[in-house]
Amino acid sequence: MNKDALREELAEDEGCKYLIYLDHLQLPTFGIGHLIKEHDPEYGLPVGTEVSEDRVRKAFNLDIAVTVEDCRRLCDNVGVDFNELDLRYPDGALALCNMCFNLGYPRHSKFKKMWAGVAEAMEDPKAWLTVAAEAEDSRWFDQVPNRAKRLTARFRALADG
């Protein structure tokens, strides 16, 4: 997994704010899309509280590691070796990780038909069309339309081999 490419892509999609803000779901967030959780020192602090550049960088690096591992687990759930996926379809793996970063493991795991399409795509590249169609048939697609359209276009492009 090209983590540098993932970092660049996510930083562009998420933007970077050195303060606590509410994301599109009205959840407290800071930095590059870091959702504040109970174990974070920022938990409970008011919107607008400043966050240091060092803290933003550390949270983002941890979020990248978690995202790649979550995507690996989601692949395992459908019998796909993430490393093989990344080797054969690096842009597909990158797009899936981007989607996983945005959704989080629990919500991304609910895309059962999409993940079945990923498994099928390991045998037949045309199945990337299923991956795209299933991603498009979701609330996520309506919540982040620009990002979702770009990612699903990348899935569709993989079907052409």
How would you describe what is shown here?
The protein is mainly α. The protein contains nine helices and three strands, in the order H-E-E-E-H-H-H-H-H-H-H-H. The protein starts with a helix and ends with a helix.
Helix content: 55-70%
- Uncertain spans, ≥5 residues at pLDDT below 50? none
Strand fraction = 5-15%
Shape: elongated
| Strands, total number | 3
Sum up the structure in keywords:
mainly alpha; 161 residues
In short:
With 161 residues, the protein is mostly helical. It is 62% helix and 7% strand.
Write the layout of secondary structure elements.
Layout: H1 3-14, E1 17-22, E2 28-31, E3 34-35, H2 53-77, H3 82-88, H4 90-103, H5 105-108, H6 112-121, H7 128-136, H8 139-143, H9 145-158
Antiparallel strand pairs: 1-2, 2-3
Helix pairs in contact: 1-4, 2-4, 3-4, 4-9, 6-7, 7-9
